Amino acid sequence: MTSGPAIEAEGLVRVFGKSLRAVDGIDLAVAHGEIYGFLGPNGAGKSTTVLVLTTLLPPTAGRARVAGHDVVHEGPAVRAAIGAALQEAALDPLLSGREHLRLQTALHGLPRARRKQRTDELLERVGLTEAADRRVGGYSGGMKRRLDLALALVHEPSILFLDEPTTGLDIQSRSALWQEVARLAREDGVTVFLTTQYLEEADVLADRVGIIDHGRIVAEGTPAALKAEIGRPTVEAEPADPADRERIAGALDVFGERVSRSPRSVSVRLRDGASGLADVVRALDAASLPVENLTLHAPSLDDVFLAKTGRSLEGAAEEDETEA
Amino acid sequence: MVATQVGAIAMRSIARTVRQPASFIPPLVFPTVLLAVNSGGLASVTGLEGFPTDSFLAFALAVPFIQGALFSTMNAGTDLARDIQTGFLSRLSLTPLRGSALLAGTLGGVVVLGQVQTAFYVLVGLAAGVDFHAGLLGIAVLFAFASIVSLGFGALGSFMALRTGSGEAIQGLFPLLFVFLFISSMNMPRDLIEIDWFRAAATANPVSYLLECVRSLIITGWDGEALALGFGVAGALAVVAVGLAAVALKERLART
Predict the structure, then answer these.
(1) Which helix (H) or strand (E) holds B145?
(2) Per-residue pLDDT for A311 more than 80?
(3) Which segment, A22-26, A170-174, B107-111, B248-252, is predicted with the most confidence on average?
(4) Would the pLDDT of A174 be above 70?
(5) Which residues of chain B make contact with A56, given a CB cutoff of 8 A?
(6) Residues 6 or more apart from B201 whose CB is under 8 A from it?
(7) What are the residue ranges of CATH 3.40.50.300 in chain A?
(8) Predicted confidence band at A302 (pLDDT cuts at 50, 70, 90)?
(9) If DSSP codes are grouped into helix, strand and coil, which group holds residue A109?
(10) Nearest C-alpha of chain B: how many angstroms from A136?
(11) Is there a contact between A94 and B87 if contact means CB atoms under 8 Å apart?
């Protein structure tokens, strides 16, 4: 293990074409054994950052070291130290789970006797022993992701990159994968660099979170610290009659600054914290403004994203998809 | 370690083909059906003065060998293109796999399948009563020749896949290769082709020499010139195509 951070980047830039700055000057340092959540909407630059850090894409500028090795000049040493499950489980539908692991162990140069042993260990670890000899084309999304994880672990890497590992999975599969990732970090001391667009995933799993938007890290810290930085809860009022929306907004403006959460509702970050909720109810009642729903939101990572970028994470994803 | 990597990739290539009947049955069935149809329909051609054999089946048996190799172009190319499109190549890139081992393994699988096709067509010929004039040694040479041809066409397909990253582009190449097959000495010895432009095109077409090499082993025996031209063309194709594929692979595997 190197003495410095497991992963570090300084001024990392990746430009596509003449002007598309997918990664626009990222600085980060991830400690050994840490789970670092890289949170952002689609198109924010998460996957491009992972490709650069895993040596699959050279940076346009800046530098990065992974496991103490420069990603540009020491590619093979970086790859020997890392495992990666990239976006979309890249598996061969015609091979079985066991055949994938056999191939991977052979390519990593494990001794012949060790290959079968390691294959069996990993199949058991990710709960695929029974399905090991079935073709991957018949696996569920969760099974594919678990196999993807097992393949990334074949050579016992000290650093693991997971690019949106739970996208498209049901809650149960997502939860099972979270447990396995947490176990890798806590029990085996593996450093995990995890990209996600799920707030809950970053919140539950990550020791620290970096929030990325338009290729830049806009906030970084532990989930608790980031939320504490925002501090105040938000009240969201959904009018019973959409025509009342502006009047409700006028009534709520006196309680704090307005934030954009949903086009149907009005949201205000309460200046006086949760204790201001009673006053909000009284004000709406006094103005005879009926609401369909009144919700108090504790600060979330979405609020952090909102505070730093002026957009909610969900809205940002939709915007980016529209732009694309 | 490189040998292990080549073996592992070749095994995957073979397993993929065997598990997709649509990729190995057509290269066996279609050329055989075409052989049967042509042998029946064009049998009277053997009556032409100067035709080198009285069995059109023996004359035409060379065609499926080359057609099978063309199919291997498509198989090797589409498999590699799919690996690029699905990200499987990126997965392989993260291992210590050498580019040369990836190419050798992929092409090794193609060559093994080329041998299976060759064995099939030899058996079809023997079952239909074709006498291989070059004997058992000639059949062994035929297998060696098929290896080089499969290697060349497989590398061509791999090159296309690596350059375009698209299975559709490979499929687009396939009809073009068939045009080369049809504008060749496929159905008639070049010196008996009466239409000037066609004879000139067939003479300029390297596929003619591949066909004539195979054909010489079946109907002539040992024809040094046909063998030299056939092996020369096949060898040149293999060297050029493997070289192009190697360069394209280096560009595609843009890992640092």
Answers:
(1) helix B135-164
(2) no
(3) A22-26
(4) yes
(5) 90, 93-94, 254-255
(6) B183
(7) 7-91+139-227
(8) confident
(9) coil
(10) 12
(11) no
Chain A residues in contact with B15 (beta carbon < 8 A): 94-95, 99
Q: Mean per-residue pLDDT for B230-237?
A: 97
In this predicted complex, what is the ipTM?
Answer: 0.83
Superfamily of domain A228-323: YebC, transcriptional regulation domain (3.30.70.980)
Amino acid residing at B86: T
Choose which CATH entry (3.40.50.150, 3.90.25.10, 3.40.50.300, 3.60.40.10) describes domain A7-91+139-227. 3.40.50.300
Rounded to a whole number, what is the distance in Å from the CA of B255 to chain A's nearest CA? 4
Taking the Cβ of residue A138 and every Cβ of chain B, the question of whether any pair is shorter than 8 Å is answered with no
Q: How many CB atoms lie within 10 A of CB B251?
A: 9
Model confidence pLDDT, tens digit, residues A12-33? 999 998 888 999 999 999 999 9
Round to whole Å and give the CA distance between B141 and B118. Answer: 11
Say what the pLDDT of residue B241 is.
95
- The 10 Å CB-count burial string (b at 16+, else e) for B160-198 is bbbbbbbbeebeebeeebeebbebbbbbbbbeebeeeee
